[in-house]
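Final report, Chapter 2: Outcomes

The project's central promise was a pipeline that accepts a single protein chain and returns its three-dimensional structure in a standardized token representation, suitable for archiving and comparison. That pipeline is now operational. To close this chapter, we reproduce one record exactly as it appears in the project archive, with the input sequence first and the structure output second.
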Amino acid sequence: MSAKRISRRTILRGTGAALALPWLEQMSSAAPASAAGQLTSPPLRSVFMYMPNGVVPELWTPAGDGESYEITPHLKPLESIRGDFMLLENLWNAKTVGRNGHWPKVPAWLSGGYVERTSGDDLDAGGTSVDQLMAQKIGDGTALPSFELGLEATRSGIDTAGGGFARMYGSFISWRDPHTPVTKEIVPQLAFDRLFRSNKAPVISGLNPDDPRVLNSLQRDETSVLDLVREQAKALRNQGSSGDRVRLDEYFESVRSVETRLQASLKPQKRWINQGKLPIERPGPGIPNTRPEHMKLMMDILVLALWSDTTRVATMMTADAQTNEDFSFIPGVRGGMHSISHHAEEAARKKQYEMCVTWHVEQVAYFLKRLKSLDEGGSTLLDNSMVMFGCGIKCGNLHLEHDLPIALAGGGKGTLKPGRRLRFPKETPLCNLYLSMLQRMGIEETSFGDSTGTLPNLG
């Protein structure tokens, strides 16, 4: 019996639930692409993952100039998927050079803009970020035009020691326009609700966890979204091919796994133990007890967002600029990452900094491997994505701006040739990469930020 055809836009609905679906064979034989947004093949996605406080340059950049290279210590977590990403060298944001510390470099990371010193909330980040331009151009094809995630609450005040920049600059890489940052969601349950709860989080998205509206929003019964759409899910599974049944089972299992872990985050310990130190108050409502679990939950939710085609454009801040969150959860590390990053070449502190950086690369590796594991009808979710990750400074100790640590993973639906090291001329605009990505997303811009053209030889 042939599988019944369904639209890519099919959503399983129940009371308060709206469950979008992964790519299925039943969709590939549906109606041809049209103005209504139907697709005959999986879509292309773009993801931007920001890491804080730079790297140890010699532990990121391979020796030599050739395309063939040995995996460096920072990149060791990616070794098993070295054929799925490329190193992009000698890219920079010229407008951040010589400017104090971290703050002006964060908004510029995805825009290439010149960040102004301002007072209060009168921000000027110098440009629209590339993810938001994508959202403006193609975001009407998905339920969420873009999806912004992070782990840390928005900062406030002015950093007088850091050149007079608003600390808020360090909390946002996504900018709808030069004056309007796009709030990132840091509470995992609220991020999940944006995907699957039809009567939830748009109003409260992006609030800091100590906002009383967050606590109010987290008051809920524990009914799974899968239970709310059970009959529809059963019917869909029965009418599909054997391959689609496997895909649906894997998808539903992933949703259930995330929900189970979210429930644990809503019933936290009153206090938690910080790596053998004195107990400290745990994070705000809905924030998991440990940073590793918080990170993993957010990445798993991001996978669900892309897998279900709820969005095709996303950003993830694995930490904010100058994050001084305690990284003592890493064995051998004591203290905040930003403080450790200014190691002044003191061996013990530099080693701890190295471990913090490599831990962030491990998180990216987990995310990429998860995308690679998901079949989309002969290709993987990673094959059909472009995942850019890196930082807006080269070295946390010296705040170097040249040759930023940048990598690009995924196949770009056949438009990228990963598994290589590409060395561009020194001081090539990072915005050339963004222009290249925009065009691959079907957005025919001729320039972006301070771009001088597209990057050659990516495909």
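Archive annotation: Residues 30-37, 276-280 have pLDDT under 50 and may be disordered.
This record, like all others produced under the grant, will remain available to the consortium after the project formally closes.
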